[in-house]
Each structure stands twice: as C-alpha cells, then as structure tokens.
Amino acid sequence: MKINSLTNGYRLSAGKGNVEHKKEWILNLPNNDYFWSVQAIDAAFSGSELSETKTINPAISLSVRQYELLDISVYPNPVNNGLVTIKSPLSGVKNITLFDAIGRNVLKTELTAEALDVSEIGAGLYLLKVTIGDRSATHKLIIN
C-alpha cells in the first residue's frame, strides 16, 4: 500500500497522481525487482481498488520478437476466375490461411505452386495469410 492510500484502496488525501496525461516513461533502473500497481481516480477523487501488484526486473529481456516480413505478389485481386497467383522471391512451401471478414478460418493448405484455387470459396472479402519458413505476410483478397 502507498502512504496516501487506505487499506480499502481509496486515497487518504485528494491530490493529483503522477500520471496526468503522460503515457510513457523512460527509466534507467538498476537490475533489481520493482513492484507496481495502478489505481483509477475519478473527478471526485474517489479511487478504485489498487490493481494486483506486478513485478518487473530490467535484467530480464523486455524485447519484442522481430518478424521478417514476406515480400509477395497476390493477383488478380479481385479474383474472378477462381485462381489467384501468389509469387514470392523466396522458395519453399507456402503455408496458406484464408480468413473471412469475421475472422473464421475458411481455408488452410500448403502450396508448392504459385496458383491457389479459391473457386469453392464464396464471394466476399478475405484476409490471405502466406507464410514461407519464418516469414509471413497478410493481404486483403476479394473473391467475386
């Protein structure tokens, strides 16, 4: 509990917090465990319960995995004849996933050629995800 907080999570004294309108901070911290939690304060200075206390240690990597994007060409788009060509400078099996407009997986296949048959798929707007190895790309695909 913080000094200005009661055991029920409400602030002991009305006052501005340290957030205001700032959305990010850059801190150079020594490698130790640090504990944090948050509390919402409304316009009447009523505080919410304090959130669950979390721990962070800067010695543990906080990096985001870097993804290599896949350079592909998808045509024709819109698709009129049931076949769509997917070209990439990378060789290898193309893992294909096609999602409809509400996110349902409507097709999942592996492709070794450049032509994908979508003639059995209904007309509409789709997202086409193509993965070769550890690289992937997603394109909007319209099927007429």
Q: Which CATH architecture of the largest domain is right?
A: Sandwich
Helix count?
0
Percentage beta strand: 25-35%
Order of helices and strands: EEEEEEEEE
Query: Radius of gyration, rounded?
Result: 25 Å
- Give the helix proportion (percent range): under 10%
Structural class: mainly beta
Task: Classify the fold: give the CATH topology of the largest domain.
Answer: Immunoglobulin-like
Largest sheet: 4 strands, antiparallel
How far apart are the first and last residues' alpha carbons, in Å? 60 Å
Uncertain stretches of 5 or more adjacent residues: none
Number of strands: 9
Text of the CATH class of the largest domain: Mainly Beta
Shape: elongated
Strand order of the largest sheet: 6-5-8-9
The number of distinct structural domains comes to 2
State mean pLDDT (0 to 100 scale): 81
Could you characterize what this model shows?
The chain has about 140 residues and is mostly beta strands. The chain has 2 domains: about 1-65, no CATH class; about 75-144, Immunoglobulin-like (Sandwich), CATH 2.60.40.3080. The protein is about 0% helix and about 35% strand. A 4-stranded antiparallel beta sheet has the order 6-5-8-9, with no helix packed on it. It has a 3-stranded antiparallel beta sheet with strand order 3-4-7, with no helix packed on it.
